[in-house]
From TrEMBL:
Binding positions for substrate per the UniProt entry: 156, 182, 193, 279, 401, 406
Organism: Companilactobacillus halodurans
Gene for this chain: argJ
The entry's keywords: Acyltransferase, Amino-acid biosynthesis, Arginine biosynthesis, Autocatalytic cleavage, Cytoplasm, Multifunctional enzyme, Transferase
Protein name: Arginine biosynthesis bifunctional protein ArgJ
rRNA-binding keyword on record: no
Gene3D superfamilies linked: arginine biosynthesis bifunctional protein suprefamily, ArgJ beta chain, C-terminal domain, L-amino peptidase D-ALA esterase/amidase
Length: 406
């Protein structure tokens, strides 16, 4: 089974660039100790853009997440997003919401737009109040530029920036879709538990953008897991400002599926990048499930395997302990033919009809040295497929999270 990104499509992945009409910037305001690391940024559209979002399901939803959700739900439009790292503004009581609204107002004043066109995103340490003088200083330093500094201004324990851009032709016009995100730990999404931003210059029918985002998040960001922990802050926000000049995109447009394929490719690549950058990780793990009774079953099984600490630890140890994979499958309520389930690891058969395939241990162990491990499961229960991504579990994961505050 091939990854979505490997299928031939009518879009092109291009070097990262902003779509028409978008500007951004990032600065070091002083939230982080290292002056070389940016800690505040923003993203701006020259015209109000359609906006949609998906949000963490953690009951302790952070103030900026709540505020952005309320703002988008009010008019389904945004013109700017302001972001900070280092401090999450989560579990900070009434003051936290006041501070989030202050960030919103300061940004609106600087851009000369109304506050209800500004979204707010924060990430970092939970339980600490925002130092608003530092936040105000950072916002005052931001400019409307063509750089990509904002993509590094949201990072926490991430090892690198996560960006991608794609282009597709719609009605004779070139439409660009660009995305960036952060995420390395506390990754176990249900409606997108990380910070992700996807912007496009496509002209899209009113009300359609939320449907597109929700559908595509389900098969991308919601199918990754690093450590099984759902964060308090995180969200995916998408904007479409229409400046590409294409005919209005609807579900009946000839190029609708081409746009969806390009949009899915952007989200899928970002999701995999988060999984590969899991805290302390050394390997990206992709699980493909085929011949499931339903798509939901296939998604459950694939995510159960990448989420199993025992499977993750075995992959780190380069141990082809297929019993852990079988156990992870069996813990779900998916329909499984328990007498005829088969498993492959990097195209080498591990399990044949629920029995050991008598594989060569040396060859298998050598395969497990790869940076990407692909597991394929045949449930022999139908025709549906599913896919999920994760990473191995290493000593460094414990080290990073044992000293996060210090």
């Amino acid at each position: 089974m091939q990854s979505i990104l490997k299928k031939e499509q009518k879009y092109q992945i291009i070097p990262f660039t902003w779509p028409k009409g978008y500007k951004s910037d990032g600065v070091h305001a002083g939230l982080r100790k290292n002056p070389q690391k940016k800690d505040m940024g923003w993203l701006y559209s020259k015209v109000p853009a359609q906006a949609a979002g998906t949000y963490t399901t953690n009951q302790f939803q952070a103030a900026p997440t709540k505020l952005t959700k309320q703002t988008i739900n009010k008019s389904h439009q945004l013109q700017a997003m302001v972001m900070n790292t280092a401090i999450a503004n989560s579990v900070t009581g009434e003051q936290g919401m006041l501070d989030a609204k202050k960030m919103q107002q300061l940004t609106a004043d600087k851009l000369d737009i109304t506050p209800d066109l500004v979204g707010v995103a924060s990430t970092g340490l939970i339980g600490e109040p925002l130092p608003m003088k530092t936040i105000a200083k950072g916002i005052s330093q931001l400019e409307l530029l063509d750089n990509d500094y904002v993509t590094s201004a949201i990072l926490t324990t991430d090892k690198h920036q996560k960006t991608i851009a794609a282009q597709v032709e719609i009605g004779g016009k070139t439409v660009t879709i660009s995305g960036f995100c952060k995420g390395s730990g506390m990754i176990h999404p249900k409606m997108a538990t990380m910070l992700g931003f996807v912007v496009t210059d496509a002209n899209i029918q009113d009300g359609l953008l939320q449907d597109i985002l929700s559908q595509q998040v389900d098969s991308t960001f919601n199918q990754i897991t690093v450590d099984g922990d759902t964060s308090t802050n995180d969200m995916v926000v998408t904007l479409a400002n229409g400046l590409a000049g294409n005919p209005e995109l609807t579900t009946q447009s000839p190029e609708y599926e081409d746009f969806i394929s390009a949009y899915n490719a952007v989200l899928s690549e970002l999701a995999q990048d988060i999984a590969a950058d899991g805290e302390g990780s050394t390997k990206l793990v992709e699980v493909n499930v085929e011949n499931a009774a339903t798509h939901d079953d296939a998604q459950k099984v694939s995510k159960a395997i990448v989420g199993s600490n025992l499977v993750k630890a075995a992959i780190f140890g380069e141990d082809a302990n297929w019993g852990r994979i079988i156990a992870a499958i069996g813990q779900t309520n998916a329909k499984v033919d328990i007498e005829h389930t088969s498993v492959w690891l990097n195209d080498l058969e591990l399990v044949d009809n629920s029995s050991s395939a008598n594989f060569d241990e040396i060859t298998m162990k050598e395969s497990l040295k790869d940076n990407k491990i692909t597991i394929l499961v045949d449930l022999n229960s139908g025709t549906a497929t599913g896919q999920a991504w994760g990473c191995d579990l290493t000593y460094n994961y414990v080290r990073i999270n044992a000293t996060y505050r210090s």
